[in-house]
Specification:
Blueprint (H helix, E strand, L loop, with lengths): L21 H13 L3 E2 H4 L5 H6 L4 E4 L26 H12 L3 E6 L10 H14 L4 E5 L7 H8 L5 E3 L9 H4 L5 H14 L4 E8 L5 H13 L4 E6 L16 H14 L4 E4 L12 H7 L3
Parallel strand pairs: 2-3, 3-4, 4-5, 5-6, 6-7, 7-8
Antiparallel strand pairs: 1-2
Helix pairs in contact: 4-5, 5-6, 6-8
């Protein structure tokens, strides 16, 4: 993997966040440990972990914590071996949602290319169990690309999530470098097929800035997402997890993030574009409930 250049840009002040204190995250972390659950907040070293855990919210990471892909921007562990699914995981996840009294829950996963359906059946079971135990909770799924298995995608959508999120991560020209096992058009096709198969679902995607993309490429990416029926977009600054990962090529200023937000909402007509240096896919995801009231389906 690529090592960090000696000429890497210096992290600006607007990206400096205080390290989370145990008393702020302890209750949620203890509950997750008790139920033997993983969160992407912890596994991917999210900079917002303190704020989210302190408010009693988390993005649950199922079928993990190790991923069958080794994307050079990601901090999640790599394991290509074939592993059985845990049939108790959906029940434990539903118990956590109930104990935390969540109004909105995000369920995501590592890539599980070792499974014939990419883990679609586990997503289905997780949604089913959460619905049984917390019927008023809205559910957002952040899924992998399932290797283009559209029958598996339909199984996921048959669980009837409120939001289906699949991150495109970067612009087309950087895909081979950033997502060597991914495919730009496959991601767009997944998002389009989602809306075609399940018209009432809210579709969502996100990507990072600072990997070497140009501003024009960002605008083209936003247009591609809009043309493939995406409703909500998240845009955040890429932060390199360590010396074995891709280096940051640039730190994008807050005004530039605002520019992309306004272009997406005012020019292209997205329901919402959440765009700031510290934005991540699931940051403030509970705000979807406001959008669902404003744009009912």
């Amino acid at each position: 993997m690529t090592s960090i250049s000696k000429n890497a840009p210096t992290k600006p002040e607007w990206l400096r966040v205080k390290a989370p204190q145990f008393e702020r995250i302890g209750n949620t972390a203890n509950l997750l440990s008790d139920l033997k659950l993983n969160t992407v907040c912890q596994e991917a070293s999210c900079p917002n972990i303190g704020e989210c855990f302190a408010s009693g919210t988390a993005t649950f990471l199922i079928m993990g914590p190790a991923c069958t892909r080794a994307c050079p921007y990601c901090d999640i562990n790599f394991d290509r071996s074939k592993r059985d699914l845990d049939p108790t995981e959906p029940h434990r996840l539903a118990e956590a949602v109930s104990r935390m009294n969540l109004k909105h829950v995000v369920i995501t996963s590592v890539n599980r290319d070792d499974l014939d359906d990419g883990g679609a059946s586990q997503f289905f079971q997780c949604v089913s169990e959460v619905r049984k135990k917390s019927p008023e909770t809205t559910i957002e799924l952040l899924i992998p690309d399932l290797c283009g298995n559209w029958q598996a995608l339909e199984l996921v959508l048959d669980s009837k999530p409120n939001v289906l999120n699949h991150n495109i991560e970067t612009v087309k020209s950087l895909y081979r470098k950033v997502r060597p096992q991914g495919n730009y058009q496959r991601t767009l096709d997944l998002l389009k097929r989602t809306r075609e198969y399940f018209p009432s679902v809210y579709t969502k995607s996100g990507f990072m800035l600072g990997l070497g993309e140009s501003d024009d490429e960002v605008l083209n990416l936003l247009s591609d997402l809009k043309n493939h029926f995406v409703d909500i977009v998240t845009i955040g600054q890429y932060l390199s997890p360590g010396p074995k990962h891709l280096p940051v090529q640039r730190f994008v200023s807050p005004p530039k993030f605002t520019y992309f937000k306004l272009f997406g909402e005012d020019n292209l007509g997205f329901m919402q574009v959440v765009s700031s240096p510290l934005t991540r896919s699931s940051y403030h995801a509970e705000e979807i409930q406001k959008l669902m009231k404003k744009y009912p389906r």
